[in-house]
Amino acid sequence: MDSRDEVNRLDRLGAGRRAAGDTGAAEHAYRDALAIAETHLAPNDLTTARVRNNLAVLLKFVGRFAEARALYEWSLEDVEAALGPRHPEVATVLHNLGGLAHAAGRPGAGEAAARRAVDIREAAFGADHPDTAADQAALASILDATGRHREAADLLERALAVFERVLGPEHYEVGVTLGSLGTIDARLGHLEIAETRLRRALAIKQQWLGPDHLELVPTLGTLGVIRRRRGNPMDARRLYERALELLDGRVVADHPHVVALQANLAALADEAEREGGGI
Questions:
Q1: Residue 52: is its pLDDT beyond 50?
Q2: What is the domain count for the chain?
Q3: Residue that finishes a domain, picked among 178, 200, 222
């Protein structure tokens, strides 16, 4: 097996381990692939750029944001140099850079990259392509985080229609988009609609990923918030605790999801103490 074949094999192995939620094994495979690529392939080879991008996706997922950003930027430079600034592969890395800024708590810093990704993908594939819809959904998450909830919801509804029509109503992308829409509904106080969407999102994600995957965490956490706001603190506690169990030992200790879930549990405990004390 030559070096490129081995890099591709390890890259596929990393993707499989990441899909299964085994972040440690995924990182090991990606780093082995990258070591071979950087030793035996040309410095700006697209295979190497792809592995850097995929490793960055994993590092973003576990909360190692600075490492992820450096890898994304390196990958973007090589992809643009090889394919030109309007190639769909450039949009892929830009999409990821926008999502990284959002995950790191700096959503405004990711808006330009996310908008550029949408523009490139729409020019290449049209407005009704699933890849364009995925970029629109990523941009919508940034807009929501910066307070533009209605604009975000409009983009997500458009993306959802494309996913349901082209990919089917039980596709993973439908679940992700429903989760994002449910989060916006919750922000706007539409709790019943939000819960319905989030429960459907959770069911679809579990169907695709299984019951113990890290990508369930945001949906579980938001469902917990809704159950608390609807007067069901015990349900909320169970959802928060399940989400924290999924994160335990698999992300950095100060990951934003961990911090938010712990704060929500502390708030529940404070509420219970006040009620028990007659406050």
A1: yes
A2: 2
A3: 200
Cβ atoms < 10 Å from Cβ of 274: 10
Q: Are residues 227 and 174 in the same domain?
A: no
Euclidean distance between CA atoms 122 and 131, whole angstroms:
9
The C-alpha atoms of residue 206 and residue 21 are separated, in whole angstroms, by: 12
User: CA 195 to CA 200: how far, in whole Å?
Assistant: 9
What confidence score (pLDDT) does residue 278 get?
42
In a domain, 46, yes or no: no
Cα–Cα dist 246/258, whole Å: 10
pLDDT, tens digit, for every residue of 12-21?
Answer: 999 999 988 8
Domain check: are 104 and 193 in the same one? yes
* AA identity, residue 239: L
Give me the mean pLDDT over the 218-244 stretch.
96
- Give the pLDDT of residue 279: 36
- Are 169 and 260 members of one domain? no
- How much is the average pLDDT of 115-133? 97
DSSP state of 147: T
Whether residue 60 is contained in a domain is answered as: no
Residue 222 belongs to a domain: yes
Question: Which amino acid would we find at residue 17?
Answer: R
**Single-letter residue type at 203:** A
pTM of the full predicted structure?
0.85
3-state secondary structure (DSSP) of residue 127: coil
Residue 94 has pLDDT above 60, yes or no: yes
Q: Are the C-beta atoms of 66 and 103 separated by less than 8 Å? A: no
Instruction: Note whether 99 and 153 are same-domain residues.
Output: yes
Which of 273, 269, 256 has its CA nearest to residue 102? 256
Task: Give the domain range for residue 196.
Answer: 85-200
